[in-house]
Amino acid sequence: MTTPPIVARSVAFRAVALFVAVASVGVGIALMVTADLGVAPADVLSTGGAERLGIGVGTMGWISGAVITSAAWIMGRRPQWGTLWGTFVVGLSVNLNLAWLSETESMVWRIVMFVIGLTIIYLGITVGVSTMLGTGPIELLMLALTDRGASVQVSRWGIEAVILTAGAILGGQVGVGTVIFVVLAGPVLARTLPPVVRFMGTTVLDRPLPIER
Predict the structure, then answer these.
(1) Which of 4, 38, 190, 201 could hold 8 in an S-S bridge, CB 3.0 to 4.6 Å?
(2) Contact between 34 and 103 (Cβ < 8 Å)
(3) Residue 128 falls within a domain, yes or no?
């Protein structure tokens, strides 16, 4: 029996999905920053750089995003319009959401904010990458490394280790939440990307993207 060819979703459908995804990532980042239990490595760098330079966390995200995107480009993964536009939307979303989110002393609510923020970020990254209209800077670099034979998990962990170290040196927000994000990011993306990529009808690698165990 012949397997029918995979047909990609329309560009319009994927463009809307990308916009929702990147805007959602900004919401997730803002929730994790407000929870103050530790943020993703990229946001450790953003919070540390923002504090040092006296700028917004989202604005620092634009700067670090430009550097990471350049590195991925050098390695052969050319950014698409969605990468540049998405980076801008994420930074804007972070700044806007941090402006109205209120900090709380309640550990219960801080944990709730952290879990919701973490979940939103993972979902946003998965959908954004699967649209193939332009992944985020870190995901673009991750794909550049997988193009060279590295696994999704190893690529993600390696990138985040470097970014986390730089952010910690700058005094970024490091906590137990940072560890949780780093440990789960690779395995979660390795499992969520394949089904969503199939749904979108796209191809993120030059070879099949397996579910890693």
Answers:
(1) 201
(2) yes
(3) yes
What's this model's pTM, rounded to 2 decimal places? Answer: 0.78
Contact 28, 117 (CB under 8 A): yes
- Domain span at 58: 11-200
Give me the number of domains the chain comprises. Answer: 1
- pLDDT tens-digit map of 58-84: 889 889 888 999 998 998 888 878 778
Token code pair at residue 127 = 């959908």
| 206 occurs within a structural domain | no
153-178, pLDDT tens digit by residue?
Answer: 788 778 888 888 999 999 888 889 98
- What letter represents residue 30's amino acid? A
Distance CA 84, CA 140 (A): 11
6 found inside a domain = no
